[in-house]
Amino acid sequence: MLVKTKKRIYPKEEVCIGCHLCEIYCVLAHSGTRDLIKAFKKKDRPSPRVIVEEKEGVHVTFALQCRHCDDPLCIKACITGAMHRDENTGAILCDEEKCVGCWSCILVCPYGAIRRGENKKVASKCDLCIEKGDPICVQNCPNSALELVEV
Amino acid sequence: MKYVIIGNSIAAAGCIEGIRKIDNENEIIVISQEPYHIYSRPLISYWLSGKINEEKIYYRPWDYYEKYRVKPILGRKVERVDFDEKKLYLDNNDEIYYDKLLIATGGKPFIPNILGLAKKNVFTFIKFDDVKAIDKAICPGAKAVVVGGGLSGLKAAEALIKRGCEVTVIELAERILGSILDDEGAKLVQNELEKYGIKFVLKNSVIEILGEERVEKIKLQTQEEIPADLVIFSIGVVPNVDIFKDTPLKINRGIIVNTKMETNIPDVYAAGDVVEAFDLILGEKRVIPILPNAYIQGEVAGINMAGGDFEYEGSFPINSIGFFDIHMMTGGIVNPKEDCEVLKRLERDRKIYRKICLKDGRILGFIFINSFDRTGMIVDLMKNKVDVSGFKERLLLDNFGFLDLPKEVRREKIWRV
């Protein structure tokens, strides 16, 4: 009964230009529409599940999403059982129906890769776009600053 | 090989899942006094407030026992354990043999020995049955007294306010949430809770419960009387070790275990709120009754019970808790007694408070109120005893992130998995 993630996305800070296209496409992928305009006109559009790190006065940027750890603390700290591992892909997913927004996962994630989702009601994190094939952020990075690695 | 677990909560789940990482064959028996499918204790206040229905209180899916090949024996109490014979005796006279045993009996509520406890409508706040009973006893306008201004007492108070009760919290210490906040933070949170109608009586305690058959009033140490339709005791929990008194099992405040979660008795393990485990910040063993600990300790025990070799690295108290629209995360030592460096940022108007305690460049503890995104990164720095002196001021920023860390630290962290 030992499933591990099969894919992980790694950032390359040397080539990231901080354009935020990964975030934009992430929102699109989780909006339930294929139309970028429609997705962004939505009243409660999903928040991006990839985090672009940038700081004023720092010339480095990179994008970070859930590491889909082999030994995930978020699952162990989750008080509801919402945080779980997908049995087929090994990706770590949050069942938004079960999540009560206690933020225990945010308290323990060493990568700060989990966010309070739209309306701050439930936890929101990268799901590796498992329902859509390959992660859309990787596909749409203009500089190949995100690399999908089979592990 | 027969695995037996006493208890059916988070440590039990960790143990089941730990065993099944290694052994998919042998039977696991889970025995619990409560009649319920495995549920999550922290969710009882959510259920009472009406935020979730019964279906959502369960911690694992309905087919969980079946899928993990677990035989649950629910609604049965273990009367005693014979460690020599490796046998458990249940309250229906059944005997159960074990090869490997996990004690995960959790904590039981501490209730002070005062007059009038036997009256109706005196409750504790730890089990599903507690909130089911409270649910039947309340109606809008009911006067509730909550004894104890800690984490669970305040969750109880919040739920009762949401159900339309009038709530008074009695706390012995001079501030609420004494174990996780400092004076500044506690004041901020108390002000918010008062806005929602919770009344507080600090530096006081209940000495008697008055009334005929049911609660009508409570009497305070100061001789003052407060009318009450119900009283909830939520002072704290103590390790639930009653059935092991007069056995060779070594118990201090909690059951004593080593890094493999083994007790002093061969083939007997313990995990969760019932044990004393290693506190990484204090450097000593103590009971740290928090949910992630229970799971991790249970998992370590399970892996070792199944023949694996895994060590528990220790932990320190961390909490994420919110009331109404104020949320806080805290960890480690927040009221340092020794001389250590304290960094603070308080924005009263935005109700934001960040506090970091440092010693020799290492983070000892933190309080983050209404500013807690990515707190896990700070917990990780604490756990790994990273020297933060080079960027300590940045720990107070709302948007603290990887770019605040030195490049090599950042790269090592992101690429470590």
UniProtKB/TrEMBL annotation, chain A:
Residues 90-119 form the 4Fe-4S ferredoxin-type domain. Gene3D superfamilies: 3.30.70.20. The keyword Protein transport does not apply. CDD domains: CooF_like. This is Iron-sulfur cluster-binding protein. The keyword 4Fe-4S applies. One of its GO terms (molecular function) is metal ion binding. Pfam families: Fer4_11. It comes from Dictyoglomus thermophilum (strain ATCC 35947 / DSM 3960 / H-6-12). Keywords: 4Fe-4S, Electron transport, Iron, Iron-sulfur, Metal-binding, Repeat, Transport.
TrEMBL record, chain B:
SUPFAM superfamilies: FAD/NAD(P)-binding domain. Residues 1-298 form the FAD/NAD(P)-binding domain. PROSITE patterns: PROKAR_LIPOPROTEIN. Coiled coil: none annotated. Its cofactor is FAD. Residues 317-385 form the NADH-rubredoxin oxidoreductase C-terminal domain. Keywords: FAD, Flavoprotein. This is NADH oxidase. It comes from Dictyoglomus thermophilum (strain ATCC 35947 / DSM 3960 / H-6-12).
